[in-house]
Each structure stands twice: as C-alpha cells, then as structure tokens.
Amino acid sequence: MGEDGAAPADRYPRVRRRGQGVLEAQVIGALRRAPGPAAAVWVQQQLGGDLAYTTVMTILSRLHAKGAVSRSRSGRCYLWLAAADEAGLAALRMRRMLDGEHNRDAVLASFVSALLPHDEELLRTLLDEAGRTP
C-alpha cells in the first residue's frame, strides 16, 4: 500500500493488451485503407501510435511470412501492401491450424458437424462452385 492507501495496481492501472490476431487484423485493415504501399511508421500512426515501431514491424514480418502482405524495398525501408483482407487472414489462420493437426479428417468432420444450417448450406455452395471452376 502506498501513502494514499491505494495498492500499486490501483495507481498504475494495467493496459489491456491486444491479442496477436487482433493486431494482425488491425494492421491489415490499415494497409487496406492506405492509398498505396505504406511504410511501417505510417501503419503505426494509423493504429494510434501506442504500439512500438518494433511491434508493428514484427506483425508486418509475420503477416509477410503468412502471405497476407507483400513488401517492396524503398531506400532503406520496406513499403507494405495488403495481399489479403480480414477474411483472407482468418482463412490463413484456419488453414495453418488445420495443417498442424495430425488427424485432419477428424478435425474437418468435427468442424462441419458443428456448422449452423446456413453456414453448412453456404459451404456446400462454395464447394460446388469451386468444383466447377477449371
């Protein structure tokens, strides 16, 4: 307890941290709003500037490794461009999770059996359309 009777946690409230998935979606969103390829510092400013530059660079590098963003060299830095939207990023995460499972068939069967009727119908339609595409 401090002199004012408040516990240290009361005087210094914890800052809520954003999860990696949330940060990735925010970075992708910022890049999609950009008028063209954007520098990491621009992305940092679009996210409110409360993230460290190194954090933004780490997120951009991870997104690049996932194929969700592309980059091109401009002088000493990179310019970044969204290659996927938020839905595409979610799909990449789902695919990576599925790729990490030993019994892929069981995971897919469990996923499909838990779908809502509308989602199941949509999935059937999408699979039919994908099967017709050369």
UniProtKB/TrEMBL annotation:
Question: What is one Pfam family matched by this protein?
Answer: Penicillinase_R
Q: Does the keyword Protease apply?
A: no
The domain of life for this entry's organism is: Bacteria
What does the UniProt keyword field contain? Answer: DNA-binding, Transcription, Transcription regulation
Protein family: Belongs to the BlaI transcriptional regulatory family.
Full protein name: BlaI/MecI/CopY family transcriptional regulator
Q: State the species of origin.
A: Kitasatospora kazusensis
